[in-house]
Amino acid sequence: MDEWLSRTGLLIGDEKLQRLSQSNILVVGTGGVGAYAAEMLCRAGVGRMTIIDGDVVSPSNINRQLIALHSTIGKPKTEILADRLKDINPSIVLKAEFRYLSCDDIKEILDSEKYDYVIDAIDTLAPKITLIEQCIKRKLKIISSMGAGGRTDPAKIIYGDISDTYHCSLAKAVRKRLQSIGIKKGLKVVFSTEQADKKAVIATSNERNKKSTVGTISYLPAMFGCYLAAFVIRKITEKK
User: Fold this and answer.
1) How far apart are CA 235 and CA 88, in angstroms?
2) Cβ-based neighbour number of residue 136 at 10 Å
3) Which domain holds residue 34?
4) 128 vs 11, 36, 101, 171, 172, CA distance in Å?
5) Which of 94, 85, 186 is nearest to 142 (CA)?
6) Cβ contact 220:154 at 8 Å
């Protein structure tokens, strides 16, 4: 066992560490939620990972995103995160793809290799729905993040089925779209039961694929990412 994993091994044991080292995770979206999920998986010893995002760091990301610094403004998020993950675990087998996903892209990625788990941290509805639909169609294990914006209470973050979500406009939109294609339940999600502050939402016209901007606090998206990673780690290390 590498020394940097010794504390993890002390907690969960060599057998579970081995399962993590042999696992392959796809993380789609590396912003406020996804980057933290990817890093927590990497630090736990996940051996293979693909990270995908088509965005670059902007100044407004600095309040909450792991890879957002004044020195990284304008750089691809996947590029910065990939360097960081390799510095944590030089042995990780890592693919970093800087691109926005179309429906055909998602099908190609999901068919390209075998993933043990997919983490959906996309905040744009169309590709999010396509990723979820295609994972369910292929019986790929997936956990999806709902909205972290407009909220401040970490105690209100929970796991649930998409059919059980409430007080979340993103979850409502996801439910509606999935129901229109015959999917009513069976998607595991992380969401907050806290009602979002409506005053924290403003219309926007200068952001790609977004009609509104939602206020955020530093720790909430990070905690969503940690919840996603914790769930995946637990599932991978469970006894078969």
Assistant:
1) 23
2) 17
3) 3-237
4) 34, 18, 9, 11, 13
5) 186
6) yes
Spatial separation of the C-alpha atoms in residues 181 and 236, rounded to whole Å: 29
Pick from 157, 162, 216, 225: nearest CA to 191:
157
> What is the number of domains present in the chain?
1
Consecutive H or E run containing 9: helix 6-12
d(CA 117, CA 141): 5
pTM given for the model: 0.95
Map residue 44 onto helix, strand or coil.
helix
Residue where the block lists tokens 């996603």: 228
Pull the structure tokens for residue 2. Answer: 């590498």
**Torsional sign, CA 108, 48, 228, 235:** positive
What digits encode the pLDDT tens for the residues 93-113? 999 999 999 888 999 999 999
For residue 44, which of 29, 68, 25 has the smallest C-alpha distance? 25
Amino acid at 35: A
Taking alpha carbons only, the member of 75, 29, 20, 91 closest to residue 234 is 20
The CATH number that applies at residue 139 is: 3.40.50.720
Q: Partners of 98 in the beta sheet?
A: 53
Residue identified by tokens 């407004």 is: 60
pLDDT, one tens digit per residue, over 170-200 is: 999 999 999 999 999 999 999 999 999 988 8
